[in-house]
Amino acid sequence: MLAQKLAVVTGAARGIGLAVARQLAAAGCTVLMVGRVAEAIENAAGQLREKGHDVLPHVADVTDASAVAALAARLRREFGRADILVNNAGVLLEPKDFALPQAASVFVVDPDVVAATHACNALAPLRLIQAITPLMRENGWGRIVNVSSSLGQLSEMGGCWPGYRMSKAALNALTRLTAKELEGSPIKVNSVCPGWCRTDMGGKDAARSADEGARGIVWAALLPDDGPSGGFFRDGQAIDW
Ligand SMILES: NC(=O)c1ccc[n+]([C@@H]2O[C@H](COP(=O)([O-])OP(=O)(O)OC[C@H]3O[C@@H](n4cnc5c(N)ncnc54)[C@H](OP(=O)(O)O)[C@@H]3O)[C@@H](O)[C@H]2O)c1
Q1: 18 CB under 6 A from ligand 1?
Q2: Residue 53 maps to which CATH number?
Q3: Which atom of ligand 1 is nearest to the CA of 150?
Q4: What is the pLDDT of residues 56-108, one digit of tens each?
């Protein structure tokens, strides 16, 4: 079944997105790897192609509406389908010294930074869902994975990093309301927390590799037809919102 699936992975030039692209390709998907820097995404795709994976680079800044429209147009023109969308591209624009959280206190963070964080982490996934879900509907199958974070859990909400935390809470809300509107359809949408991973964002002290973090995302991208929709998961296990 998976041999013909076309997966779109945003932020695929490095970190967790690159690991997700590799794992989905290894599972038999064709993967369109989306990145905003041409050289970086072409290099990343080239490395996976050398290993025999069926991947292609696509240059797009996901916060740019016209770039997202061009991505959807390419999917329709070149493939006539899009089966899996992994909204992985994300930013943490606030000071991220985890030993000095007060530098990212709600009382000092620039609201413009909060807005820019939302543009990438919450509004871009909304735009991508709007652009790509029509292709899923046409082909009668779809899986959307919003890559979220425990820092967006309302049940566990701590202080500091308001831009990042609020953007991931908003992304989780997007998962819930999209799932509600897709109820009864063959398209599933879930939020996944990859855990704390060793990437540029997570830093070198994180407990998990990018590959380990990617596994739970790939699980949600390949859910069977009786799998869940509208949930929040880590390692395939439901977690609190
Ligand atoms: N690492 C962790 O511990 C952790 C934990 C929980 C959740 N997450 C989430 O996991 C996802 C991946 O994180 P990561 O750790 O792999 O981060 P990362 O190493 O910083 O990589 C982020 C990726 O997103 C891309 N990106 C950022 N803004 C973009 C834009 N406007 N358009 C297109 N691509 C853009 C980056 O592209 P450029 O190379 O062009 O910058 C990069 O490829 C994020 O959503 C993050 O919030 C990470």
Answers
A1: no
A2: 3.40.50.720
A3: 6
A4: 999 999 999 999 999 999 999 999 999 999 999 999 999 988 888 899 999 99
